[in-house]
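Quick question: what would this complex look like in 3D?
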Amino acid sequence: MRNRGAKVLADTELKVVSKRLPKVDGKSIVRGEARYTKDFVPEGALFAKIVRSPYAHARIKKIDAAEALAVSGVELVLTHEDVPRIPYTTAGQNYPEPSPYDTFMLDNKVRFVGDRVAVVVARDRLTAERAARLVRIEYETLPAVFDPEEALKEGAPVIHDEPDSEGIHDPRRNVAARILAQVGDIDEEFRRADVVSEHTYYSQYEHQTPMEPHVTYSYVDESGRLVIITATQVPFHVRRIVARVNQIPIARVRVIKPRVGGAFGVKQEIILEDLCGHIALRTGRPVLMELARDEEFYGTRPRHPMKLTCKTGVMKDGTIVANEMRVVANTGAYGSHGLTVPSNTGSKSLPLYRARGIRYVAEVAYTNLPVAGAFRGYGAPQGYFAMECHMDEVAHEIGMDALEFKRKNLIRAGDKDPIAVKLGEGKEGFERVVRTCGIEECIQLARNAVGGGGKDRRAGPGLQAGPFRRAKRGIGFALCMHGTGIPGDDIAGATIKVNEDGSFNLLVGATDLGTGSDTVLAQMAAEVLGVSLADVIVYSSDTDFTPFDVGAYASSTTYVSGTAVVRAAEKVLRRLREVAAEVTGVEVDKLAFENGTFKTPGRGSISIREVALKSFYGETKQQISETASFLNVDCPPPFGACFAEVEVDLDTGKVLVTDIASAVDVGRAINPDLAEGQIVGCLAMGIGYALTEEMLFSPEGRMLNASLLDYKIPTSLDLPELKGFIVETVEPSGPFGVKSVGEVGMDPIAPAIANAIFSATGVRLRELPFTPEKVLTSLRAAGL
Amino acid sequence: MQVKITVNGDVFVLEAPAGETLVELLRRLGFKSVKDGCYTGTCGGCTVLMNERPVASCITLAAQADGASITTLEGLADGERMHPVQEAFLEVNAPQCGFCSPGMILTAVSFLRGNSDPTREEIREAIAGNMCRCSGYVKVIDAIMLAAGKLREGGSR
């Protein structure tokens, strides 16, 4: 659903952009012809299986692979003694990565249950799995620590005691990173405030759970170069990191990303490529590595669990004067994205409300649990869960309507984001001004869509309803803003090559994960060049053949890669205009360009197709091909609002989301179908985050629910009709006015549901997810 | 054991090693649209039609498919002419990453054979065994509703 209300856009001239066109890869997908990483693997490729630690914390004393090697079909067993020892981070970030270099391809120590110990390479999966069980490993177990606050205490087991890691804030105290950012004299503001309110919230390990698990296929080509076909968000970072840890030149590595079966952040990580590439180089044979579903859960990079304390000072009239967030984040056994995710927790959420004093403090702890990493929202969903619940509580405490209270304090167009300059992506920040803000339209759309438009035609709190014998119903909401790319960091390149028939090859490093970036980038190129979408042939994410792009993360692609595409298309159009001038004998600046045709004053017109042909076979024969690059220097915020209606079963504690709507100010939607897909996809994922998704661990640190049966992502039966709305504003810094849409919709869902539960029952839940046992315990404690 | 299996109308007679699953056999034969996301029959990515009924091919032994007729997504279109369910998925942009689409589309085809005029709730029940992490099922259900209409108008398939 798309709002065409308040802001009518001057988009009547647009022919391709802003249109609901089928994805460029859609036909191959629905015909079963789309090719994903594993579909490229030839018969006879080796399979490499990782041997994983059964202990949360241990030193490896001895590895005896003789028995495994004796199995027929086993080619190789590799341990830490066989591979280069180079500290690195698995985080696929810009160089130099802001994450600590605290990881080794294989190490002599293990730091969580499931950590990599060795790898068995065999003729097929079954043989490799069988042999992996025969690798004899002698461990010296060490005391382990699972609670981040315990880990930070004096005397806790030291998880990173190796001398050669780099960039850890304080390894002896298990501190991976520490963050402090402050605006104004916040302590004075707290003293001046009429009311100071403080609450603490907890968030869980949530897993991305893409339908395609991590998979990588490597081989050495006929010229001795390493080719890695892999399900990744960051092909260029993979190339650089794999080259470095294997001590080979970047020039010797080619990374190709085919279709990817979902990613959501977990594929912004070098999970398999380092080892898989190493084995291909070592054996000269094609090698497949693919995680089993249980390994996908504990062996990858789920969302950081956090303890978040919000403290706010308000005046009697509801004006916020001081706003503080203090976080303890659990990065697990390694610090991948350990500084930047918790940075974003503050920098994405705190600017939403104006305050003279703002402070963000975070401590990031190592524990002996699975490694956290990038997950859609990148720290912001944790921050918004805490802050949007907390602001609801503050409003309640000062006797004000929550919507009125939040509206009164919201950031508006024209405001500077005060925290951006203090809190960047693991370094100093940047000037950020809000130029477009559609949050009011988001509020109205989402509010009107849920439970009878705020008037609540069906019920107030307390009515029996739905399938439950004794239930309470209520509506809650949450607001958010997010970012678009990483200023000063994101760069993207695009090349456009002219063909004789007026078709164009668009080559982009940008990485389509199923998001539809190939399609929207082609739509933008087609719009500039005045041709149809079918005339633009997209090829993306091949480090040999496409220009550099940092990859698909930070909600950057449409904005950052899109700008590079528009620039390349404009350069190509200039060159074609010169050809048109030459052919028609009219001066370049006298030519008008409309609907794919150059028009002369008085000498007729010539289509871009004819010009393309003439560029090859006319007077001046040439291949027109242009490359453009874009460095992102801004971070325009998309805004969002979610309204949710829930029924809480008083007998079992089950929470049913009966109605939910999310509206997002995306800038302009290049392809509304695909933008809506992101918004409702976030809604589903957010409901899972709020109600059912949680990685559970035994007291020894072993994950208890590492399967799709026991880790509950929503199925079609677990969701109501999800209502997603696009609100369009035209962002002046974005190509065609775009901001972003990939992550923002994740931010407000869990707090909207928490606030709905409160409005239904008067019971405040501060710990995700809201499972029936937790809800029932709270209901009983409140005497319900 | 030796297995005789019909896939998308072609007959294959081949040796299936003990323990080989149907998904492994089909992918070995080149039917790469069949996706294996969990190997436990949970995600639905490996759904194929076996004698017209949807099965999870990752928990079906190749031996169990001996003598059976299998349809994979590759076999659904009639040359260039796509099945109405495929057309509908394309038209409403139902697939995002597309990894669940083969199983989802085949489940929908089978479901619509038994229910030509479904409600959205009935569709929800029909696809409950096909997990999708991208879409929230919104456009998937839109597509199946649209396909039902196409099938009612178009008749036979």
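Answer marked as accepted. Residues 3-9, 454-464 of chain A have pLDDT under 50 and may be disordered.
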